[in-house]
Amino acid sequence: MKNTPRFALAVFAAIAVIGSGCAKKKVAAATPPAPAAAPAPTAPVRTPTSTPARPTPAQRPIASAPVSRMPDAATRARIDELLARISDAYFDYDKHSLRPDAIKALEADSTELRNILKNYPDYKLTVEGHCDERGSQQYNLALGDARANAAKDYLVQIGIPAVQLNVISYGKEKPVCDEHDENCWQKNRRVHIVAAAR
User: Fold this and answer.
1) With contact defined as beta carbons under 8 Å apart, do 171 and 137 qualify?
2) What whole-number distance in Å separates Cα of residue 149 and Cα of residue 129?
3) How far apart are CA 84 and CA 116, in angstroms?
4) Residue 16 Ramachandran class (φ > 0 left, ψ -120 to 50 alpha, else beta)
5) How many CB atoms lie within 10 A of CB 128?
6) Of 31, 36, 98, 136, which is the most buried if we count CB atoms within 10 A?
7) Which range marks the domain in which residue 154 is found?
């Protein structure tokens, strides 16, 4: 039994050798195939923004000169000529309604005048109302104003812009005749149109 420790030792060695031989060999696992290369992220394709190309000098629109809101000298002369041809509109005693002859006077050349004035919105006319010497100053100022407004309303009706027509009453302050009879008084009961003071 002296050999027991050696014997045990030999048994252990044999078991160890056998144990290592019986142990399952680990089979190297097959390496999985390398993942397919993911496509590299591509930067978004940038299309140039559609900024309009600058026009060449030949393509640039020609800046038009600002339109004048007031007529030139030649056009003002034509307006003055038309106003001179438009006769004063006359009224019956103590009335402010337009008589047929007053309408005819206002109608003369007013179409051309209207066409010119529409092109020059800052140019204005003044419609003056006048009366004869009879009646108080206050009464005649009111009557002259009513006459001027009746004429203005007619001119607006034929197409002259209302904003281009000022109204003023002189009552009996600016007579064209100084006699004291009906013939003279008739000449003073009138509407007269002039270019507004500039």
Assistant:
1) yes
2) 8
3) 15
4) alpha
5) 21
6) 98
7) 73-195
- Would residue 122 count as lying in a domain? yes
Kindly report, residue by residue over 83-119, the tens digit of the pLDDT. Answer: 888 889 999 999 999 999 999 988 878 888 899 999 9
In a domain, 97, yes or no: yes
Which of these, 153, 89, 67, 81, lies nearest to 112 by C-alpha position?
A: 81
Task: Name 26's Cβ contacts closer than 8 Å, sequence gap at least 6.
Answer: none
Q: What is the CATH number of the domain that holds 178?
A: 3.30.1330.60
Q: Find out whether 127 and 152 touch, Cβ atoms under 8 Å.
A: yes
**Per-residue pLDDT reduced to its tens digit, 62-76:** 555 556 688 888 988
Gap between the Cα atoms of 64 and 67, Å rounded: 8
**Tokens read off for 128:** 């003056």
DSSP secondary structure letter of residue 2: T
- Phi–psi pair at 25, nearest 5 degrees: -75, 135
Burial call 139-152: b when 16+ CB within 10 Å, e when fewer:
ebbbbbbbbbbbbb
